[in-house]
Amino acid sequence: MARRMILNLGQWCSRIFGVECDKKTGPVYFALHMDKQTDQRGKELRQLFGDGKVYSFHVHCKDRIQRSKFDELLQNKLSSIRSDDCTITEMSSFLPSVQQSFIKGFLLKLNSDNTFTEKLVEELLHVDAVSVCSYIQDRDEVWWQQHLSLSQEGSVMSTRYCVISTGAPELHPSILNIINNDVFYSFEEAYNVLMECSDIIPESKAVLDLADQRIDLSETGKFPVIVIEGLDATGKTTLTESLKEAMHAVLLRSPPQCLAPLRPRFDCEPPLIRRAFYALGNYITAGQIARESSKAPVIVDRYWHSTAAYAIATAVSGGVGNLPASRSEVYRWPKDLLRPSLVLLLTIDPEERQRRLRGRGLEQTREEAELEANHLFRQKVEESYRRIEDPACVTVDASPSPDKVLQQVLLLIKNKCHL
Questions:
Q1: 360: Cα within 13 Å, side-chain hemisphere
Q2: In what order do the strands lie in the sheet with 250-253?
Q3: How many CB atoms lie within 10 A of CB 201?
Q4: Helices and strands of the chain, counted as H and E runs
Q5: Of 97, 110, 204, 281, which has the highest C-beta tally within 10 A?
Q6: Are the beta carbons of 41 and 174 closer than 8 angstroms?
Q7: For the segment 4-54, what is each residue's pLDDT rounded down to a tens digit?
Q8: Residues 110, 52 contacting (CB under 8 angstroms)
Q9: Alpha-carbon distance 124 to 16, whole Å?
Q10: Residues 357 and 289 sit within 8 Å (Cβ to Cβ)
Q11: Does the pTM exceed 0.85?
Q12: Pick from 168, 201, 253: nearest CA to 65
């Protein structure tokens, strides 16, 4: 009996696989069949797999914390291979239209045989949570996926499936896993993630303690709450400080200052854990908003819109066309999170934003660095901001001088909040 029978083989054969060959054109998809099939689009597979050795790797684990850790382990292992020796491409598998069935993975194409890579593949075969497959073409030019496993004696066994090209699904498959994995829609869902990882990440307990101490109110006080959103270097800090003075307001930030010492620790964690941390930051900030808005107007530097927009843009590969459609449930505001009176989204010309970033010289998070280097990612973040509803963002051109932007925003606040 093989050591690794993580997935029911029938379910494995029901999965669709997608390989991100070109972020602009979208993934190449293929399905599996138990029996040999003729593929009318076999040339696509030839272009996908090439002539050398090809492997794919997916993590399968019921425990979501362990799965996120194994995902990171797999990525780190593969990144140790020299780029001259191979091509590594993002890959996924999923059950069509089945929520939470999306599994990230990688396709590894070897440019030449080398001992280091073969040893790495053998090493991953010993990791029970990682599914390892190889791909071969027979004499009839039919492609086969060989699902590899180890017997109890340690020898390599394989189960073969015929590979057939298939069309793209109606919606990008990464959408299947966004809810309460990439974006959290309740305090309880985010809280539970950090509870589950508190044994392996001791700092989680400090975050949970702060979350337990928050004021749990879903409505603001009698004064308006204005959230300022936008990409880095769009003028948020300058504007929020100016609004604080002009409106005699309280200035808050999300994540709140009390979490600042813990951010470096959680920024190094896999997406599931990192997202839960920032989600709880919004709920802690909400408690602060509820308290302060009973005494004065409140200005908030970033809130749930930022958390959601960056998470959605990161989760969905490719371009803007792969994002969930407008009015999708992924853009809905969490029912238990305090809503602001008004959300303003600052925008400026991309070249001007780049100039400002170069002048700042501050350390960047992973996503901020990706934002600067990848225009497709930036476009997805901006579009995700625009699609979030209830409350939606009101766009503000932040290109003019800081004083003109301030006057424009004060007028908006007066009109929208009936001051």
A1: 15
A2: 250-253, 298-301, 225-230, 342-347, 393-397
A3: 17
A4: 14, 13
A5: 281
A6: no
A7: 444 555 678 899 999 988 766 778 999 999 999 887 777 888 889 988 899
A8: yes
A9: 22
A10: no
A11: yes
A12: 201
